[in-house]
Amino acid sequence: MIELNSLSKSFGNGRGIHQVSFTVPEGSIMGFVGHNGAGKTTTFKILTGLMDPDSGSATIDGIPVKPRNLKKLKQSVGYMPDIFGVYERMTVWQYLDFFGAAYRIPRKLRKERILKALDLTRSGDMVDYQVASLSRGMRQRVGLAKTILPDPKVLILDEPAGGLDPQARIEMREVVCELRDVGKTIILSSHILPDLGNMCDLVGIINKGNMEAFGKLDDITESLTDKKTYVIEVHKDDLGNAQQFLSNMGSIKDIQLREQQISFSCDKEEDLGAKVLAYLIENNIRVNSFKLQELELEEMFMQLAAK
Ligand SMILES: Nc1ncnc2c1ncn2[C@@H]1O[C@H](COP(=O)(O)OP(=O)(O)OP(=O)(O)O)[C@@H](O)[C@H]1O
């Protein structure tokens, strides 16, 4: 649905993007992660026809991203930049109606589209508000409503949750998931890594213009770790014994005690999790919980960015 093949754009001194390739299937959400200046906006600008690449190609909904296809692309792609202008003196309805007209949506259809966009972005109760009076979270949702007015199949959202408080971020995340559920294909960038983990089907990590990783979050995590870390919680009277048993087992590393939790690691290939659990129970250790520790997106990102 969205396909990038070796897209490159150089601004000199190594700045820009280098051979960026990935494919986002129809109806999925891809989270595009990278530090400031990593190359996210440049990629978005190329995809939306605002900037020409030096080399490489891209297609969206089967349409090659080329200047001659800009009109067609505009119908298929909705782009919400990280900073967008709003007309402070208009009400939300006037603002959307204005853009509906600019998008040449016929008057009769326009009302229906505005109502649908307001509904999908949970902005219905703001129609009569002056744009100037909207909070940052409301503005982002109204911006999103404007972006989906022409009913594009693909949405490219640059930092839609940027500057939002935790509650507004949750709302934005729910709205984005709802848009995926009605069939949109979405690429969005974010610095708020945990948010991406919860909502994205795919994650792409870009660092200094190079794609460091792309795929399902679980697969990327798996490929990054060479060990598995487990966290167990045992009855407080069994802590010492449990620790002793673990130390007696060969191949167990990094045994650490934190309050009532003990964590330990083992080789990924060997994966001793089940064996350890059975061993502790056989030795009458009262195990309250036993779980595999997941690598946080933040940690994973730091590992890749440090490369
Ligand atoms: N028009 C331009 N002229 C010169 N350099 C540019 C231009 N646009 C981007 N760059 C440089 O290219 C690199 C990538 O920038 P880009 O804006 O794509 O990063 P980003 O990941 O979107 O960052 P941010 O999160 O800060 O928006 C940066 O080093 C930036 O300074």
From TrEMBL:
InterPro entries: AAA+_ATPase (IPR003593), ABC_transporter-like_ATP-bd (IPR003439), DrrA1/2-like_C (IPR025302), P-loop_NTPase (IPR027417)
Residue ranges occupied by any ABC transporter domain in the UniProt entry: 2-233
Entry's transmembrane regions: none
GO molecular function: ATP binding; ATP hydrolysis activity
Domain of life (superkingdom): Bacteria
Keywords of this entry: ATP-binding, Nucleotide-binding, Transport
Family under the similarity heading: Belongs to the ABC transporter superfamily.
Protein known as: ABC transporter, ATP-binding protein
Lineage: Bacteria, Pseudomonadati, Lentisphaerota, Lentisphaeria, Lentisphaerales
